[in-house]
User: Which sequence fits this backbone?
């Protein structure tokens, strides 16, 4: 079992999971020839939601990380 000992570790883990999920959804969308419109709309909604979660994390980090720490870059 992996252990994350700091808040920044959790931020990194969350970002990594969201980026991996986003990549899988995009790959599925690219390979989805012949699917119906509801499937396409669902997948686009998933991509939009994941992208917004990553954007929210970025905005929260900018707003509350006042020490200008660069350990996630």
Assistant:
């Amino acid at each position: 079992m992996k252990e994350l000992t700091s808040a920044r570790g959790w931020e990194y883990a969350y970002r990594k999971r969201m980026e991996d999920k986003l990549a899988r959804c995009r790959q599925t969308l690219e390979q989805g020839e012949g699917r119906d419109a509801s499937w396409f709309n669902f997948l686009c909604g998933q991509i939009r939601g994941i992208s917004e979660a990553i954007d929210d994390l970025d905005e929260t980090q900018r707003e509350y990380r006042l020490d200008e720490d660069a350990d996630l870059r």
